[in-house]
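Chain A, query sequence.
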Amino acid sequence: MAKQTGQPDQSPRAGHHQKHPLKDLVKDIVFVLVSFFFLNSFVLASFEVPTGSMENEIMAGDFLFVNKFLYGGTTPRTIPFTNIRLPWFRVPAIRGVERGDVIVFEFPGQRDEVQSQEFMFYLKRAVALSGEVAAMLASERADDFLRVLYGDEPRAWRDGLHGFDRLRVIVNACTRMRFCTPDGRMEFREKRGREHAPQGFRPWFAHDHRRTAGETVVCGHWSTLELDLAPNVMMLDSGCLWGGTLTAVRLSDRRVYQVPSRRPVQPKPFG
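Chain A, predicted structure.
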């Protein structure tokens, strides 16, 4: 008979789990990193506000948490702590951006850049008022709206506008506006160049404190200006219909390309 003692049996047994503190620590670190990668890429991310463009609501330097799950998260776009870009993909979104949403997006670059050399995020509030017009044109009330679309009133935007008046001022601002006052009142009769601005009015892009003053706007619509390349606006309507040229600009270096008109309409209006 084997002799029994009060000492526990310390001999290794089959299936006995041996603890490895270093191995367990590595596993914990990997789990934390993978969890952080998943949450930061697809669910929730921290964000430091880079500019004061929304300083009435959010100050530069504020830290925010961004819901990435709503609009569709992405895999990392750069190697952490560097500006080295990586291939990335986006998962399906729950819904699209709606008017009034505060969104974070990749800075697209300066006016002479196809892509920003430095990777950074910007914060803006989505306005997208033209989406209201598109929704009306796609609705059963489109014919009713078109019957009252053309008109000069209201001549300025107000947040309290509603109905067809609201839609009309959106259309006028996007398609007819040339001159306006600093407070946004539009003038529609004068269609000649900037030197013919009515008293108290300036070309819409010449107002120093307009909300898009820090952005470069590429547009047409004002053929009597012909080609006009300013630091913050590129007017490309060079009057092809009236015998001028058809103009394009390569954004990366602002190089201008032009081809002559084939069959101009004469005479040029407002000459």
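The first helix runs from residue 21 to 42. The longest strand covers residues 245-250.
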